[in-house]
Amino acid sequence: MNLPRICLILSFAALSTYPAPAWADAVSRQMEQFVEKGVVSGAVTLVASKSGIVHWEAVGKSDLASGRSMKKDDLFWIASMTKPMTAICVLMLQEEGKLAIDDPVEKHLPEFKNQWMIEQKEANKLTLIRPKRPVTVRDLLMHTGGLGDVKSPRVTSTLAELAMGYAREALQFEPGSQWRYSNAGINTLGRIVEVVSGKDFASFIQERIFDPLQMRDTTFWPTEEQSKRIAKSYKLNKENGKLDETVVYFTEGPLTDRRRTPFPAGGLYSSAKDVARVYQMMLNGGALEGKRLLKPETVTLMTTTQSGDIKTGFVDGMSWGLGFQVVREPQGVTAALSKGTFGHGGAFATQSWGDPQKGLAYVLLIQRAGLPNGDDSEIRGEFQKVAAELAPK
């Protein structure tokens, strides 16, 4: 009999079934208040330690019209929570020596050579100059590249086509001089992954992140079965104060159509458990359950401030690592988090954060459009406050 292995299994089971009902109820009650107020239709919350789940609950409805109750394994459009996973792909390729984050983007995508930059923009006049230096991979990871954006011409646009469009747009500012949130930059990183790895982006992220971490419900193209578990998205009707169903604007077209663009900046659907596994891996220094995805030093690089004194993010006290936001000074909505907590939010107010000091990951999945600032939402602040105060250390 292998007693050490039995003890390990029992230990993990205990972590997975903890917490005591009172702690679980405190988080759920807090979320139920937002359902009762009509802020959201429902929510899934999850808190994980480095080795197991300590809280995982669902409240409210996933579909108001049908009355379907929210389930713990429901899927959500996680939008920009896709971005850190794209960044992980890039850093994997750096570890393999296939690129360096300080490489000019043009080294891997020649269409970015000789870009212009906007010097002055007036009503009837546009002055362009050459930037002092080219955009780097690091710039794209930190949203300091200044790339212009283009609207995808069709739902089946390739990343190669989109990158060509971004390359032809004039830069908005000197690379590295300021922070401006950029979907174009992250989508360009996805194209770099394709060129450097020789695989399409969706295949690379599936093989290198989703499969090793057993993220079975994370995909750009939910199956018909998975589609039945997708929580509906809602926006507040200001006239009657009720929630109206709205569309996921980043993923137009049939969800199961694999020709639809797999946007590295925000195309993924996922579940709370799957998202938590990414943060558990990062909190464990790049490995989870015996499978190593990143070196510890790479995790440190990605999750510590790289943006210097540049003002970044959508709430005060934030900085930027590589693909992750990093809490520089806990305050306001981040007051319950430790300094150095890293994570990312999504367009419909989803949130995911890893607190290295407490060794905890927090995942909040809702589908609520139209909030003034999803990163600064009251529901996020209250969830993190209750979870951080009551979670077992």
In a few lines, what is going on in this structure?
The chain has 393 residues and is α+β, with helices and mostly antiparallel strands. It is built from twelve helices and 17 strands. 32% of the residues lie in helices and 17% in strands.
Describe this structure as you would to a colleague.
The chain has 393 residues and is α+β, with helices and mostly antiparallel strands. The protein has two domains: 18-81 and 217-390, Beta-lactamase (3-Layer(aba) Sandwich), CATH 3.40.710.10; 85-204, Beta-lactamase. It has twelve helices and 17 strands. The chain has helices at 3-17, 21-36, 82-95, 105-108, 137-142, 159-168, 183-197, 201-210, 224-227, 272-283, 296-302, 378-390, and strands at residues 42-48, 53-63, 68-69, 76-77, 117-121, 126-129, 233-236, 243-246, 269-270, 287-288, 291-292, 318-320, 325-327, 342-345, 351-355, 360-365, 368-369. The strands form five sheets. It has an eight-stranded antiparallel β-sheet, with helices on both faces. The protein has a three-stranded mixed β-sheet with strand order 8-7-17, with no helix packed on it. Strands 4-9 form a two-stranded antiparallel ribbon. Helix 2 runs antiparallel to helix 12. The longest helix is centred in the first third of the chain and has 16 residues, at 21-36.
Descriptive terms for the model:
3-stranded mixed sheet; alpha+beta; 8-stranded antiparallel sheet; 393 residues; 2 domains; single chain
